[in-house]
Amino acid sequence: MRLAISATTYRMVLLLRDSHQIQSLVIVTPWWIRSQVLVHTKTPIVMDFPGGKVAFTPEIHFISESNEERVPCYRVLDDNGQQLTNSQFVPVSKEIAVKMYSDMVTLQMMDNIFYEAQRQGRLSFYATAFGEEAINIASAAALSPDDVIFPQYREPGVLLWRGFTLQEFANQCFGNKSDYGKGRQMPVHYGSNKLNYFTVSATIAYSLLTQLLPNAVGAAYSLKMDEKDACAVTFFGDGGSSEGDFHAALNFAAVMEAPVLFICRNNGWAISTPTSDQFRSDGVVVKGRAYGIRSIRVDGNDALAMYSAVHEAREMAIREHRPILIEALTYRVGHHSTSDDSTRYRSADEIEWWNKARNPLSRFRTWVESNGWWSDEAESDLRSKIKKEMLEAIRVAEKTEKPNLNHMFSDVYDVPPLNLREQELLVRQAIKSHPQDYPSDVPL
Ligand SMILES: Cc1ncc(C[n+]2csc(CCOP(=O)(O)OP(=O)(O)O)c2C)c(N)n1
Ligand SMILES: [Mg+2]
């Protein structure tokens, strides 16, 4: 309340203040003329409420649906690979930088060759990580091998970084008997116990996209309880963030103070659905604050920025027992999978622009070269070595026997229930009656 009062009244006001009837007063003009004071009556201005103090306001004010400015995007390198002045980043040694770049090239070459193999009818399915090589490799480089990964399906680079061999990738894609999943999963549904990488899941009626998010929170909580120097890390797409599991996982992680990194690859598309048909928020990063989670938006095509952000996030997650949300802005340069033709719903120019102007490989290569750590010769040696290894891996994977048919029914139940035994019997009868329709290389 604001009052204009005389000197006498002012003295009364002082008395009232001393007797705690009013909270404070501020002199606006000299009191011997005609003092004007602001008197704040003792109406409380804040309310103690679970979660902290809440200020009262006399204004009817709705929180805006958006900030005036979008959350800025952290980057270290510009589109041409030049370091921005005053850029903050975690130093990367020559050894790590060269491995990062080499693995980015390997991932891209592996994708190209498997993709072609699928087009030739040698693989049933494939999905590339084209355009997202920096997110894959730089985040893996910033993590420790003890950190437990809960992937979607566009992050095989994390496995590659951890030492999954091209032969192991090929065995899974060809579903042969050396595949750890015994040929029961679609190609690109990799997993490795040894490398702390949960198997990508495609179980229908589960949320393929995000079932791993709440699981990652549980694993992170357990790592915290065991006082491990490790966190859980889950990768997912913008489409995954539109699933209910994403929201449940964020809330759960915040409340349980679980050391988990949520790394969202916002690549603009969930198959043919653009992000504008998925959410009206400023992307995904702003959702962290709603759940009380520290968050950052990063240029996902800048390997140095990804490395630094994930490195810092990991430190905070483990030391401070808190989840962190990272939104990596990127673009899915490839089709969603070999079952998709993305030129039906987006322009070839758009794809080409991202591939050329914002290419994560050429950008990082420029920086590595500017340090004197890479050359044209190193590039061509690497490429011919990877090509040779890939072709050999495919040759071996293709000629390796398939897993026995029994495995379609094993490993779920200790004693298979009646309905599964019936199904196995039916399959075997069908094969007997139509042997020509059954692949000859699958042992019965
Ligand atoms: C719960 C659920 N809904 C739909 C699908 C079908 N589906 C498979 S991948 C995909 C798009 C996912 O997009 P995003 O999460 O953005 O990942 P991106 O493919 O872009 O890397 C959809 C809709 C699914 N697997 N699971
Ligand atoms: Mg997407």
What does the model show?
- This protein has 3 domains: 2-55, no CATH class; 94-399, 3-Layer(aba) Sandwich (Rossmann fold), CATH 3.40.50.970; 413-437.
- 40% of the residues lie in helices and 12% in strands.
- The protein contains 14 helices and 12 strands.
- The structure holds thiamine diphosphate (TPP) and magnesium ion.
- Thiamine diphosphate (TPP) binds at residues 154, 207-209, 236-240, 243, 265, 267, 269-271, 332, 336.
Descriptive key words:
Dehydrogenase E1 component domain-containing protein; Rossmann fold; Alpha-ketoacid_DH_E1_comp; 444 residues; three-stranded antiparallel β-sheet; 14 helices; THDP-binding; DH_E1; binds thiamine diphosphate
Topology:
Layout: E1 2-4, H1 7-18, E2 22-27, H2 31-34, E3 36-41, E4 46-49, E5 52-55, H3 94-119, H4 133-142, E6 148-150, H5 156-162, H6 166-174, H7 212-225, E7 232-237, H8 244-256, E8 260-266, E9 269-270, E10 273-274, H9 286-290, E11 294-299, H10 303-320, E12 324-329, H11 348-357, H12 360-370, H13 376-399, H14 418-433
Parallel strand pairs: 6-7, 7-8, 8-12, 11-12
Antiparallel strand pairs: 1-3, 2-3, 4-5, 9-10
Helix pairs in contact: 3-4, 3-5, 3-12, 3-13, 4-5, 4-10, 6-13, 7-8
This protein binds thiamine diphosphate and magnesium ion.
Magnesium ion binds next to strand 9.
Organism: Brassica napus (Rape)
Domain Dehydrogenase E1 component: 104-404
Protein name: Dehydrogenase E1 component domain-containing protein
